[in-house]
Amino acid sequence: MTMNPCRRAFEQAQRNRRNHPLKSGVYKLDNALTAIRRLLRTMVAMYDHQNGTAWPGNPVSLGSCLSDEMDEYLQHTPAMVAEILGHDVRPAIAALEGDGLSPVEVQSLLRSGTIWINDILRECDRLHRRLESNVKREVRAIKSGKSPIYELVSDAERLIEDYLGNALWHQEKNTRANSALQIDVFSHDPSVRQRLFGDAPSPSPAT
After folding, report:
1. Which positions ≥6 away from 117 have C-beta within 8 Å?
2. Which of 33, 82, 119, 161 allows an S-S link to 6, with CB 3.0 to 4.6 Å?
């Protein structure tokens, strides 16, 4: 069975990542968010350029491409999203134990994340076919402010924001729990308890 182009890009990106495995995931989710937002900024620049609100003239830089490269850039955008999901996002979620999350927490995030990623990949492939048949339609859609490609990239941004936020929340929760456990253990030592809580020392037994 022939694999769809964006799914193929996703799987190849995962294979490439296995050559350079992640030891933790939060920083890579943050990197992926930066990359996705770069795509969004480029499409906003396309909108501004086509509507004459910025950068008059031709060709001009739109961030990640020139104004005379819009067709080619848009055609590659679904595959670029798939590559980011495969190379950075899913491996980063799987590596969150390195950021202090428990195996149970990581597996829960990975299960739900995989469902969301698969939904986005299906949309990537649908839009890839749409762009192959008529990329000019998408250029006009961006000019009108009603672009399916922009919505696709925005969905990927929401996914990464959500899982980065979840990872940071679990990380903070676990850090607080570990700190409380340490205080509970050390508080049995009267001298440590006095430093931590200002308790008065226990009176010495009468002799």
Report:
1. 10, 85, 89, 90, 159
2. 82
For residue 205, pLDDT beyond 90? no
Q: What is the pLDDT of residue 180?
A: 53
Cα gap 103→201, rounded to integer Å? 41
pTM: 0.82
CA atoms within 13 A on the CB side of 73: 20
Any domain includes 171: yes
b/e sequence 43-58, b meaning 16+ C-beta within 10 Å: bebbbebeeeeeeeee
Is 137 within a domain? yes
According to the per-residue pLDDT averaged within each range, which of 48-52, 57-61, 159-163, 197-201 is highest?
A: 159-163
- The count of structural domains within the chain is 1
Count how many residues are written for the chain.
Answer: 207
